[in-house]
Design brief:
Layout lengths: L8 E3 L7 E3 H7 L4 E9 L8 E13 L3 E10 L6 E3 L1 H7 L2 E3 L4 E6 L2 E5 L3 H6 L11 H11 L20 H4 L3 H9 L40 H17 L13 E5 L5 E5 L2 H4 L5
Parallel strand pairs: 1-6, 2-5
Antiparallel strand pairs: 2-6, 3-4, 4-5, 7-8, 8-9, 10-11
Amino acid sequence: MHRLMLMRFIIDVDNCENVISEVAVQKLKLTTEPHPASYSLAWLKQGNEICVTSHVFVTFSISSAYRNSVWCDVVPMDACHLLLGRPWQFDRDVCHEGRRNVYTFTFSGKKIVLLPSEDAQCMSSVGDSSNLLSRSLFVREMLAEGVVLLLVGTEVTGVSTVPITSEEADLHPKVATSISEFQDVFPANLPQGLPLLRDIQHQIDLVPRASLPNRPHYRMSSAEHEELRRQVEELVQKGYIKESLSPCAVPALLVPKKDGSYRMCVDSRVINKIIVR
């Protein structure tokens, strides 16, 4: 019976042997053989040498285009399951492009190109922090492990005690939830009056000896003029604005909103040209 396993592999141009991890050998239940020439490795675990005493004949495939069998030395390592060193690269006449980190070789008359990190490429379109798998990778992982744990998220109703208004219903669900949670931060009407005076007061300075603009007001209908007067009086009553002492004047205009009401705007384009940046 053939056993399948989704393996992580590394191609190392500096390694003189093909290496497979003990974990992969145990999962695949491969039959090892005594190594014809035992030797020691020190790079796998700093400070301790590992004695290689066995090797195994491993058959592996990369997608459906390439399938090969190689002899690999069995060692305890967790960096990957399979490490393909110079023997495999010599047999396949592999060409490494350092700038693109791509390995190219010919197999059965076909050109095989190995791109870096297949899993990372499959997830690159959904973000670096994503834990999503493509369908093919999921199937391979399921065949290798044999067990799949499924976590299903369901919407919980009746948790929020604050009703959502019609305006909030048009917002993104996360935004509407935040507004409902912090109702005191988003009151329907602002408190009257301006905040208390602070230690530092700011002002807008004009360029010295600049010509002060005095623009005429925009033409508007009697209804628009009445609406502008109403909004100004309301703002004065609430303490949001006060009579201007500026020697220059800038016009105000009304812009219609979607609900039919008007938003008052101040045309400060001319005065902005002579302020100190």
